[in-house]
Amino acid sequence: MTAKKAEGILLLIQGAKFPGDQDADTPYLSRLGGILSSVKVKVYDKAPTTVTEIVLMARKAGLTHIICTREDVLKKLLPEGREKKAKLSNYAGSIIPFTVQGEDTEFLFLAPLKQLISVAHGEFLARRYVSKFISPDKFRTPSQFNWKIVNDRLDADMMMDYLKTCDLIAVDIETAKEPHPAITMVGYCGFRLSTGESYAYVIPIKSMDAVEWMRRANATNIRKVMQNGKYDLSYFFMYGAPLIAYLYDTANAFHAWYCELPKVLEAISAFFIRDSMYWKDLADTGDFIEKCRYNALDVWSTGESFLGWLLEAPQWAKRNYVSEFSVVPACHMCEMTGIKRDMGKLKEANNEYINKQAATLGSIQRMLKIPNFNPSSPKQCLALVRALGDRQAKNADEKQLVSTSFKHPLNERILGAILDYRGDRKLSSTYLTVDEGAKEFGPPGKERILYSLNPHGTDTGRLASKEHHFWCGLQIQNIPAGEAVKETLVADDGWELWEADYSQAEDRGVAYKSGDINLLEVFASGQDSHKVKASLFFGVPYDEITKVIRDLGKRVNHGANYNMGAYVLVETMGPRAIREAQRLLGLPKHWDLKGVATYLLNVYDKTFPTVKHDYYDSIKKDVKLSKMLVGDTGWTRYCFGDPFKNKMDLNSYVAHVTQSLNAMILNKAFLLVFKELAFLPEYKLLAQIHDSIFFMTKIGHEYLAERTKELMLMTVPVTDCKGVVRDLRVPVDIKKLGHRWSGN
């Protein structure tokens, strides 16, 4: 049925409950006015008694549609059992019809109007959602939702007969964590594009017959689409049910167009499907049929959203998609390979950190003369922070502790120890857990650490990482520096670990994109770039630069590259390291932490003036004029932020330019290595980590490490902020780590 264009809209908003109510929508009405200027609007900011009352009020005023930002009204519209946990944030963009006197009235839900200014993309999404009422014809007409549970072989044959006639099949699984990772049901929705019809089937996985039906459906040559499909792939791998012709993914597709927007399926569905209504709460009703319907809605929404994307996405977004989705198979291989864990070393490291924490805790308690003080207690630490001079502090998180450290050297000592304690505790509880908290996968003697690699996990296109889809493992890209964790991760028997790393990739990117002559000369010198920069920063002759001063220069350089402020530098380096820098450089003793950090950042600006001025200005100009940043590799980012008004937006876009450049180069190299080497019996591709490729070769096959390096070396023409083109060729450092990742 064709949706009717709104002849008038009742805007049902949250009025102020008390003077200065920060949650009220009223102060932001003017921001919504431009979006609704083409239609008659009446605003109502009181709490209505019933939904019927609202509808009759709208009809009496000649208003045909209702836009609502009230969670209490949302709850009144939902069926019993779904209203208790309902959140306005989940239902933003949803349309819910309500029948009064035999006639439907549509309710469209928006996020609180404050988000029109507090969220960079808030106005964009509000405009998109409101167009469902004002310009409904702009949305593609979806297929009717029909579905069926596959209970027996006859149903399965019927499903296969239908799916084989389709042009596209959307696929999705539901899983359980306990007693072990398993598929509980799998959904398929076949789409016939010539007739505009679809049908969804759900197979509960309760028998080997059901597994066989799943295998048959997965083996069809019809093109398939999923939402964040690597998750599903890992479970299909476990069940021996490889998915053939998986070519499309809605998460990757939406990220390729609007990387800053939410990429969960319900948000994508609300964007592309006019009549979309949030359905994820069906999984929590406890009703098996409703859970199956939830799965069916997942696959129907995935397919419909992808078809909407195909029609609307510009060519640059589709080019982005091809680039991004190409690395998905390589990521999947790495995720299912993992790395071996030395359980003996793990227990040793765990004990060492427990003892270290105990020693630090004792020191803190002695300093405070409070025998039962707990550095992990938010309540106790907040009381301490207030006692140390920050009487208005609202919490005692890491930022607050660093801020309070500024106030006095005694604060630095006490709170620095607390930060050390918390850091060690987080490291051991995240990376060195044993027994019930163990994160390994596999039987005794064959334990491995698994992880996931996500091509749509960052705004720059660089891979992100988190724990594995089987609810185990670690985030592989942020393994802490040092030996504590890395010495527990080892090569398989008869193999050795390698890392091929692009040398100072981001620094070179800043040099080539900015065109700063001084910075370009650093890399042209052929000397150790970090020593050269430290010499320029601190006025110390190159030959007298110690490792400590080199490391200091490196950290200052990294922070200043991306417009870091003094406070963030202190937070990143830690108060202790800032004071050590003050001592090493002979800076005035009366300077506080902020003063030292400001000095350190300013030396970068003086040394490389083009970076903070012409280069940053060119980025701001590009975003202001086109809302896009187009990289030298072709990767294009749509930008919602305003780098002229918001420093966080500026920092994000400054970081994007060089991080995306290097991410795209690394992704291309990663794909080349995957295609040529990863299937050889003497080679195992493990992960992409920041600017490097992590892998194993069989002992005696070192030539494969050299071939990895050769494949990574490539030349990319780069245009700087003044239009000068230079060929960027980032060197590759190849490092043989041996048996342990730590190199020992």
Description:
- The chain is an alpha/beta fold and 744 residues long.
- It is 46% helix and 16% strand.
- Helix 10 crosses helix 13 and helix 20 (505-514) packs across helix 28 (647-676).
- The chain is globular and about 85 Å long.
- The relative contact order is 0.07.
- The model has no long low-confidence stretch (mean pLDDT 93).
In a nutshell, what does this entry contain?
The chain has 744 residues and is α/β, with parallel strands linked by helices.
CATH architecture of the domain at 147-325: 2-Layer Sandwich
Order of strands in the sheet with the most strands?
Answer: 6-9-8-7-10-11
The level of helicity is 40-55%
CATH homologous superfamily descriptor of the domain at 147-325: Ribonuclease H-like superfamily/Ribonuclease H
| CATH fold description of the domain at 147-325 | Nucleotidyltransferase, domain 5
Largest sheet features: 6 strands, mixed
Radius of gyration: 29 Å
Which CATH C-level class of the domain at 147-325 is it? Alpha Beta
The computed structural class is: alpha/beta
Name the overall outline.
globular
Strand content: 15-25%
